[in-house]
């Protein structure tokens, strides 16, 4: 297998009863890319993310990550293999501080040993990691604030920090810009571009201008099928894509 392919879907399908939501999807995500998945509402983007990360069981087909078949693994095992995920809905704990939210995430990837000294050392490592992540995402100043008091834009940035704290090799971001003011877009896009220096990024977003400006590769889903794939220019100029977006189907 091509070791530049970090994540692959092979003939992936999912149906809910009679409704076929993902239909024979083949996808190859290359190491270090920002690879976006776009498509009209209900195209199956989030379902595809759920299949890739073990949150849903495929009806048929396989998911291969770093050369290993992860199709039947539960999400926590997929996460331990270095695949992180953010959700459409912000996933911070509102009653914890900014620092605590990131630290909990950093701790979640550590092995557990019931040894007091070891636990103390690991806690310190997680604290240091959390502070480094907060500095890199520009939230260090808000370190001790309760998350419920953060602005919505800061919460979305923190979501990304939470996924970074696990030191993933691949991160899947589901609509990280959803609900953000235009003023916060630039901040998030900068973060996504920074992330891509050290990991592979798979992105779902509805903001076509932003997706086309940050992505190396775009896959277009419509009614559960891949209808186009290529560079932003290739995809933009594809008549099938224009038709899907203009409601021609
Ligand atoms: N658990 C489920 N049971 C039944 N149908 C589902 C389930 N989850 C999703 N669907 C259906 O699958 C289709 C695809 O949904 P999905 O959320 O994956 O699309 P999407 O492309 O992410 O949409 P959006 O852009 O609106 O977020 C929709 O018709 C949805 O109603």
Automatic annotation (TrEMBL):
Family annotation (Gene3D superfamilies): P-loop containing nucleotide triphosphate hydrolases
Gene Ontology CC terms, in alphabetical order: plasma membrane
InterPro entries according to UniProt: AAA+_ATPase, ABC_AA/LPS_Transport, ABC_transporter-like_ATP-bd, BCA_ABC_TP_C, P-loop_NTPase
GO molecular function: ATP binding; ATP hydrolysis activity
Domain of life: Bacteria
Domain ABC transporter, residue spans: 7-248
Keywords: ATP-binding, Nucleotide-binding, Transport
Pfam family, one: ABC_tran
Designated name of the protein: ABC transporter ATP-binding protein
């Amino acid at each position: 297998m091509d070791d530049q392919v970090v994540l692959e879907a092979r003939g992936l399908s999912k149906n809910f009863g009679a409704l076929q939501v993902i239909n024979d999807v083949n996808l190859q995500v290359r190491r270090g890319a920002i690879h976006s998945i776009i498509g009209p509402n209900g195209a199956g983007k989030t379902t595809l993310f759920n299949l890739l990360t073990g949150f849903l069981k495929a009806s048929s087909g396989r998911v291969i990550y770093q050369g290993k078949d992860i199709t039947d693994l539960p999400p926590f095992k997929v996460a331990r293999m270095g695949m992180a995920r953010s959700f459409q809905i912000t996933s911070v704990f509102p009653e914890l501080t900014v620092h605590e939210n990131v630290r909990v995430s950093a701790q979640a990837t550590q092995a557990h040993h019931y040894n007091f000294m070891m636990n103390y050392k690991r806690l310190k490592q997680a604290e240091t990691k959390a502070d480094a992540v907060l500095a890199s995402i520009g939230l260090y100043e808000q370190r001790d604030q309760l998350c419920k008091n953060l602005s919505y834009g800061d919460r979305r940035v923190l979501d990304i920090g939470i996924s970074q704290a696990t030191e993933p090799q691949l991160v899947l971001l589901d609509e990280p810009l959803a609900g953000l003011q235009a003023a916060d877009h630039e901040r998030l896009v900068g973060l996504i571009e920074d992330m891509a220096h050290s990991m592979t990024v798979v992105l779902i977003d509805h903001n076509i201008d932003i997706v086309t400006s940050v992505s190396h590769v775009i896959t277009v889903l419509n009614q559960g099928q891949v209808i186009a794939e290529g560079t932003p220019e290739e995809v933009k100029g594809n008549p099938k894509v224009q038709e899907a977006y203009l409601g021609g189907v």
